[in-house]
Write a structure and sequence with these properties.
A hairpin with a 3-residue loop joins β14 and β15. The longest helix is centred in the N-terminal third of the chain and has 16 residues. The protein is α/β, with parallel strands linked by helices and 408 residues long. It has an 11-stranded mixed beta sheet with strand order 5-4-6-7-1-8-15-14-9-10-12, with helices on both faces. A two-stranded antiparallel sheet has the order 2-3. Strands 11-13 form a two-stranded antiparallel ribbon. Helices cover 35% and strands 19% of the residues. α4 runs parallel beside α7 and α11 crosses α12. The chain has 14 helices and 15 strands. One of its GO terms (biological process) is fatty acid biosynthetic process. It holds the Pfam family ketoacyl-synt. This is 3-oxoacyl-ACP synthase.
Length: 408
């Protein structure tokens, strides 16, 4: 590794999460290494007429971890972000930082869709006087970032990237910029999503984007497998505490990993189709910003949603940008696709993987697609003493984000 990466100028000091695999970051990580699945049947009455009745729901209810009055005034999306941020902040040692040097960046793909749909139903069924006075704050896409900034007293900005499935990775990239531009010493960054609802499930199903394995929920999400037939919709979130390295050293914090660089590109071609060239540009930008060579990347947390075309295009982009030497992990095989939160949960797996020297195996990889010319981690987790890892997040709208992390 050269210059920029070796400096470790931005470090990760805390991680928090609530996902389909666990109610916090450690339990989520343990479940990933165990190869567990968070995908289950959706048994609610509203799911009966839907063509797809499987999803990755949260392992624990975030509303039960908050005071009842507080929880009722927040969308599920906000609850996830707030609990994840509190865990990450505690994990970082509750830093003593000037509020004007503390920022928050929480991405989301669709924000408070649960509240939007529920309040619209109330309006139609009971009239305007029954609509909640808290409806607008609950459905705003920026509410999660605002809640976290209020909770932590962060006054250096509360930002909300809304770039579909790249939102959380873009939040981390934005956090890197804020620190390097000297606009903050600490940034709490990540993503949240809570869209396992009739409308999103029906709409994604109409696009033929979802797996239809209703009779085999745990086996439905199959990244890079020859029999993959679409993604599984999930919910959850994760948050990382990023710090200027010198600030972390001064307070005696022990880094989990470092953020070397990030790359963002746009395809400018189609509203839903992905683009290999755009993905390659994002990956190469992350490496260049981090002072890394392709050979430095020990493993990749792939975007890998398990769609027939998307997985092939990402495999081609990885092969072109960094070669075929890196081990490839794909946690959506266990968590499902958390949309705007997916990049943050993948970043959790990347920083813990560098810290612990192990990367999760790809669940349900029974028959690897022969067209994928990569070193896919199958069967059991892969151990290794890697210097760097890459996280990919690609999204509808032509958004491409790659973030490179390094071992400290």
């Amino acid at each position: 590794m050269s210059g920029n990466a070796a400096q470790h100028d931005i470090v990760v000091t805390g991680v928090g999460a609530t996902t389909p695999l666990g109610g916090d970051a450690p339990s989520t990580w343990a479940a990933m290494l165990a190869g567990e699945s968070g995908v289950t049947s959706v048994t609610a009455e509203w799911a009966e007429p839907l063509p797809v009745r499987i999803a990755a729901r949260l392992r624990t209810d975030p509303g039960e971890a908050l005071p009842r009055v507080e929880a009722r005034r927040m969308d599920r999306c906000e609850q996830i972000a707030l609990l994840s941020a509190r865990e990450a902040w505690a994990d970082a040692g509750t830093p003593d930082v000037d509020p004007e040097r503390l920022a928050v960046v929480i991405g989301t793909g669709i924000g408070g869709v649960s509240s939007l749909l529920a309040q619209n139903h109330t309006l139609e069924q009971q009239g305007p006087r029954r609509v909640s006075p808290f409806a607008i704050p609950m459905l705003m896409a920026n509410s999660a970032a605002a809640r976290v900034s209020i909770d932590l007293g962060a006054r250096a900005g509360a930002r909300t990237p809304v770039s579909a499935c790249s939102s959380a990775a873009e939040a981390i990239a934005m956090a890197v910029d804020l620190i390097r531009l000297d606009r903050a010493d600490i940034v709490v960054a990540g993503g949240t999503e809570a869209g396992v609802l009739p409308l999103p499930l029906a709409a994604f199903a109409q696009m033929t984007a979802l797996s239809k394995r209703n009779d085999d929920p745990a086996g439905a999400s199959r990244p890079f497998d020859a029999a993959r037939d679409g993604f599984v919709l999930g919910e959850g979130g994760a948050v990382l505490v990023l710090e200027r390295a010198e600030f972390a050293r001064a307070r005696g914090a022990r880094p989990i990993a470092a953020v070397a660089g990030a790359g963002i590109s746009s395809n400018a071609g189609h509203i839903t189709a992905s683009d290999v060239e755009g993905q390659v540009r994002a990956i190469r930008m992350a490496l260049r910003e981090g002072g890394l060579s392709p050979q430095d990347i020990g493993f990749v947390q792939a975007h890998a949603t398990a769609t027939p075309t998307g997985d092939l295009e990402e495999a081609e982009a990885i092969h072109e940008a960094i070669g075929h030497h890196s081990a490839i992990s794909a946690i959506k095989s266990m968590t499902g696709h958390l949309l705007g939160a997916s990049g943050a949960v993948a970043s959790l797996a990347a920083v813990y993987g560098l810290r612990d020297g192990i990367a999760p195996a790809i669940r349900n990889l029974d028959h690897p697609d022969p067209a994928v010319k990569l070193d896919l981690i199958a069967g059991t987790p892969r151990a290794g003493r890697w210097d760097a890892a890459l996280v990919n997040s690609f999204a509808f709208g032509g958004h491409n984000v790659s973030v490179a992390f390094t071992r400290t």
